[in-house]
Write a structure and sequence with these properties.
- The structure is a homodimer of 600-residue chains.
- Chain A has 25 helices and 21 strands.
- Chain A is an alpha/beta fold and 600 residues long.
- In chain A, strands 11-10-9-12-13-14-15 form a seven-stranded mixed β-sheet, with helices on both faces. Chain A has a six-stranded parallel β-sheet with strand order 3-2-4-5-7-6, sandwiched between helices. In chain A, strands 17-16-18-19-21-20 form a six-stranded parallel β-sheet, sandwiched between helices.
- In chain A, α4 crosses α18 and α10 crosses α14.
- Chain A starts with a helix and ends with a helix.
- At the A-B interface, α3, α5, α6, α8 and α19 of A face α3, α5, α6, α8 and α19 of B.
- Chains A, B: Belongs to the TPP enzyme family.
- Chains A, B: It holds the Pfam family TPP_enzyme_N.
- Chains A, B: Its cofactor is Mg(2+); thiamine diphosphate.
Chain lengths: 600, 600
């Protein structure tokens, strides 16, 4: 394993250096054999992009022609740009080692997508936002075109976008275009954040040299400095020695985002240390792994798990992201002197910071250094993380969260992709152990309601390609109203998600934070079982809707083999009490509500 | 009339000066008798705001309590923030002399609204974007809260918002709050552009002095400098003399936006000059006025109208906004030496610019100076702008644009509010003379598809209050998919728009610009006649849907008295050929397509 990774890293380094040389050799050659539009598509295809999301707008139509004609990339017409950005985000999350792409048009389209792009920034998801913009001539003369602010400020949208992307390319000069395109794409895939590119109408068909395309773009990070790395390895080894091997591992979001799941898995297997996950790290490692103890989330953690994590002499957290909802409102009880943190581009050992030492290359070496602890580590106790089987025949027939989540926990299968919406679902899923190869997709830091619907569209496309099986979406009826139209492309493209609509008469997460019985937290009760029919009846596609009001009905549906086979898009309206919520949400909401200090 | 206006202007000036004195006298008094939240609401109520649009989010819930409790302001829960911003825009457009308000939450909510706010900027619509943000303590400590970018940049959203609003207030200090609130509101209403305000959770209930509330906020612009104004009046009078009174008037968007409709009406009545309108100025003056000659839009204009406008010795344009779609792609044939332009804050006479001379005060004086031309002016010919009655029994049974628009033209009634979507509808409506007191609401410069649906929601609330009657929306099925959920609050709030869904199998405006038969311009054919039922069936409200496929069916429906009575929300799916469009659109699209220079 370490050899393979070392080779990959070196190959990446070689490609990076080759590209750098090409940049330096840039000649204003008149010879061109590929259009800029197709140069972009070739790069994206090399990076395994097969779907591009977005809407047509008159400034991107010429580029859409090229997408429609491309042999390996399909255009997914979305119903609006925010949903398209969410879809690109969901696609990138499931199709690791690639990226999501959303194509919009100048002003109106790109600004509609902005919340989705900012979410990808916050949650560290590699997304390219490609915007069709007026011609280079128009950008120089700045007439009052439609989609402009009417005051000649053609740069306003880019200025706004800079806040939410790590790199921007404005393709105004064909001699610079290839370099610019490569640069933003490398930034996107190595730093796992969104980037922004504007493509003027008259640049789409400009011809440039495709010579650079022979050098692949690498997503491998720069090499750790060997001497610093050696020092860090020695230091960690020493600390582990001092702790007598009494270590707990905590995996978090960036394990997924920075593509170190394999390295972490190997590290755990060779060392035998007990491992826990944060909410955002859930499914970074298989939850059926026998040294896995479940979710750690500060004071909200199950008491026994809390005690195990916090009493370890040393906590090694990998890829941590300490946001409020990921840490039980910052309630970790881990003294800095007991804490080692591995990150994508730095390492912390207790109070010491080591810049430039990234976990991708450090982990295999750490595995070698610590694997001799295996006999000791394997004896450290871990409470098994198991699903508590609910009783369908309980006195209360209604479907509460306490019942619902363990019950659907029994329904999950290996390799399911499970998408949960901000709100009750994000919290409800935490206590359910997910099967081998299952992947949880959620947006815990950014928390934009409605995100899960667009995200599920992208996730469903990606799942097909990466050998995942079913896509199962959990969304509240309030959240679904924000982005409901994105069910339509799911039907058109023959995607087959199972969509659980938790109908609990309003924004329950908000009710728990503030305004429990306020009207502003109510939402209209749509006829949810009609929605697939309304969007899909004219398309001649298969779809089916259900409503379940009791535990028995839920049970019966989940046990129907045809339902679980997921051979068509299905929507299940689950009637739940308005003021019922998962325990973890109740506790988080209480803490959040206090922070808001609304009380006069 | 001039006396009344002079008095109004002076009263405004007095209030402005009083507020300025109050600013200078600001004392850090501990005495407070009103909360900041209620101070804001009191100001908004004074400005005749009765509806506030938006969604709950945990950082705005405390403020929503106050809205829900306010006797004169109602909360309109929207289905998503973009739609809410569109609704605030539509509300402000119909309820002139007030403003629209959209309330969102930190990050996720406000960014979703951004396209709507930018549209209000572009189109000059007074909208307050009020954002509930984390507490002042949290903003100082900048923890990684949900809805943050994860990197402590709490100012990123404000930086982005600055691009699309003319004034921003961050209410971080209670002693500054009242002054800040007043300042942004005055900017909003006098300059007719959106403003941005952040309200931290812990500021909502802070008490401040309500003393300033006794001084009303004025929307009257600052007084023109008397000497410059006198000079300008003399100059215009001289030019009119030289032209022998051969003048045409062209009214445009800013007549509506800057509240000079009454002044213009009086000017036209007293002088008798012929008058024309641009697309964005349509209904700024009644289209039934006997000196009104229809729409001028450069080379796209009807030849006779074009000849009348361009052959006048002098063109006086009032409130002009020369965007591509408002001018037939900048194809005015008006030499600068024949052109006088009155604007909100400046005047142009031929090549000369007079800053600070605004039309609001100039117009009544100009009326006095030019009314003696009446006997000459009244003889200048004007072609009557009449509806061409279509033949329902024509050979072609299908509903084409050439048939549809004149036919619905017969259906319109005085005081209708007509909302048209970007796309075919914006162009189709141009040739239809609208009845007395009718108001056209459209977004020709910004042109964000889907806007009309949210806008119609806001327009419908406002229409009720300003004595308008029916609200009639024309939207393509492609555009409606972007924002469809906003039909839901229309049902909930018992609004009764008539919604014509022009189902022409895709984005027809885009097809005309580029990609006529491309798949990316297709949209799924929803079961449109089910949508009201899906959203409304559980609410026990009245609604009705229809589909018309032929001219005869359309005729029959429009002649049904119950239909025109608009006593419930109604949706009409109008089946139209995919490649049919209004003539004006065909010509505009051709010009726009050329500008894009996609051809390799």
């Amino acid at each position: 394993m370490p050899y393979k990774q070392a080779v990959d890293a070196l190959k990446g380094e070689v490609d990076r250096l080759k590209l750098e040389i090409t940049n330096l050799q840039v000649t204003h050659s008149a010879v061109g054999n590929i259009t800029i539009g197709n140069y972009i598509l070739t790069r994206l295809a090399q990076l395994k992009v097969t779907k591009m999301f977005g809407l047509p707008g008159d400034f991107n139509l010429g580029f859409l022609d090229l997408i429609e004609e491309h042999p390996d990339i399909d255009w997914v017409g979305d119903c609006n740009e925010l949903n398209a950005a969410y879809a690109a985000d969901g696609y990138a999350r499931v199709k690791q080692n690639s990226l999501g792409v959303v194509v919009t048009t100048f002003g109106v389209g790109e600004l509609s997508a902005m919340n989705g792009i900012a979410g990808a920034f916050s949650e560290m998801v590699p997304v390219l936002h490609l915007v069709g913009v007026p011609s280079t001539t128009q950008q120089k003369n700045r007439p009052i075109l439609h989609h402009t602010l009417g005051d000649g400020r053609y740069d306003a949208y880019t200025i706004a976008s800079k806040q939410f992307t790590i790199s921007q390319a404005q393709l105004m000069d064909k001699h610079e275009a290839a370099h610019q395109i490569d640069h933003v794409l490398v930034q996107c895939i190595t730093r796992a954040r969104p980037v922004y590119m504007t493509l003027p109408t008259d640049m789409v068909h400009q011809e440039i040299s495709g010579e650079r395309l022979k050098i692949p773009l690498t997503r491998h990070p720069a090499t750790n400095d060997p001497q610093t790395e050696e020092f860090v390895l020695d230091l960690i080894q020493e600390r582990v020695q001092q702790a007598g091997g009494d270590i707990a591992i905590l995996v978090d979001a960036c394990v997924i985002r920075f593509d170190v799941q394999e390295e972490v898995k190997e590290f755990l297997k060779q060392t035998g240390f007990p491992v826990y996950s944060t909410p955002m790290g859930k499914t970074a490692i298989d939850e059926g792994y026998n040294r896995y103890g479940g979710i750690y989330i500060g004071t909200i953690t199950h008491p026994l798990v809390k005690q195990r994590v916090e009493s370890a002499k040393l906590l090694l957290s990998i890829g941590s992201l300490k946001s409020d909802f990921n840490t039980g409102n910052f309630s970790y009880n881990i003294p800095t002197r007991h804490h080692i943190e591995l990150h994508s581009d730095h390492t912390r050992v207790q109070y010491g910071l080591f810049s430039g030492i990234g976990m991708k290359q450090l982990l295999p070496k750490l595995t070698e250094r610590l694997q001799h602890w295996y006999p000791t580590a394997i004896k450290l106790p871990v409470e098994p993380f198991v699903n508590v089987v609910p009783n369908a025949q309980a006195d209360i027939p209604m479907i509460t969260h306490a019942h619902f989540w363990p019950r659907v926990g029994q329904f999950f299968l290996p390799k399911d992709v499970i998408v949960t919406e901000t709100g009750t679902s994000n919290f409800g899923i935490l206590d359910v152990p997910l099967p081998e190869g299952a992947k949880l997709v959620s947006q815990i830091l950014w928390g934009s309601i409605g995100w899960s619907v667009g995200s599920a569209l992208g996730a469903a496309f990606a799942a097909r390609e990466v050998g995942k099986e079913r896509v199962i979406l959990f969304v509240g009826e309030g959240s679904l109203q924000l982005t409901v139209q994105e069910l339509s492309p799911m039907i058109r493209h023959d995607l087959k998600p199972i969509i659980f609509v938790l109908n609990n008469s309003g924004y329950t997460i908000e009710r728990y934070i503030h305004g429990r019985t306020r009207k502003y937290n109510d939402v209209d009760n749509w006829k949810w079982t009609s929605i697939l029919d309304t969007f899909g009846a004219n398309l001649g596609k298969k779809y089916q809707s259900y409503m379940v009001e009791t535990r028995a009905e839920l049970d019966k549906l989940l046990n129907t083999p045809g339902f679980g086979a997921a051979d068509k898009i299905q929507l299940v309206e689950v009637m739940m009490p308005a003021l019922d919520a998962p325990q973890a949400l109740e506790r988080q909401a209480e803490l959040t509500g206090k922070g808001n200090t609304y009380a006069p």
